[in-house]
Amino acid sequence: MRGVEQIPWLYDAICAVYETFGLALWRRWLVAGARGRVLDLGSGTGRNLPLLPPGTVGIGLDPSWASLARARARAPAVPLVAGSAEALPFRAGVFDTVLSGLVFCSVPDAPRGLREVRRVLAPGGRLRMLEHVRATEPWKARWQDRVQPFWTRLSGGCHPNRDTERAVEQSGFSIEAADRRARGNLRRFVAAPREAVFEERNHGE
Questions:
Q1: Burial 27-58 (b: 16+ CB within 10 A, else e)
Q2: Which residues, at least 6 apart from 37, have a Cβ–Cβ distance to it below 8 Å?
Q3: Residue 12: enclosing H or E segment and its boundaries?
Q4: Pairing state of beta strands 57-62 and 80-82?
């Protein structure tokens, strides 16, 4: 059975509803900070692509051909590639920015996908993320654990109980506190490969 994420028109409709209740502001923040060569990872139906800032060079990647067809209509000038986060079909160090908007809850092997993000980021590059994460309240986290198997099947891959922030840090990134925001189970933040943070601090001294 296909889940919601594999039905582009339905996924778009659900996103549109959430965006009227505030998600649109967070999506604009996610994309507005992109610079240089940009990978929109898990581009889906391409809702991020029309928001890319002038002067950036974007490319969208998603495993679903049906979603990419919808993204093509939304952003005809942006190159689109079918592929997975765990095996990015790009050379190392080619992107200045990687965008991830509500993606890593559905990546089958999230740590592997995050290692791939580190690989393709150029020196000084940044990962910008907008994700929903595991609840900090114990009762709510237990409820997420309970509904996860059903929800993952219904949605087509989403895991509501993933601690994505921790996974990012365990994969060798440092989350920059100045840009981190939390609202309920939603998080937005910027992360840099840890060795890049170390080098930037030493250079500043």
A1: beebbeebeebbbbbbbbbbbbbebbeeeeeb
A2: 56, 57, 59, 94, 95, 96, 97, 122
A3: helix 8-18
A4: parallel
Residue with tokens 């604009």: 28
Closest by Cα among 190, 127, 131 to 164: 131
Rounded to an integer, what distance in angstroms lies between the CA atom of residue 28 and that of residue 11? 19
Assess contact for 112 and 84: CB atoms under 8 A.
no
C-alpha dist (Å) from residue 44 to 58, 164, 175: 14, 19, 25
Look up the pTM and report it: 0.91
Residue 35, SS3?
coil
pLDDT per residue of the chain (205 residues) written in tens, 0 to 9? 468 888 899 989 999 998 998 999 999 999 999 999 999 999 999 999 999 999 999 999 999 999 999 999 999 999 999 999 999 999 999 999 999 999 999 999 999 999 999 999 999 999 999 999 999 999 999 999 999 999 999 998 999 999 999 999 999 999 999 999 999 999 999 999 997 554 555 555 5
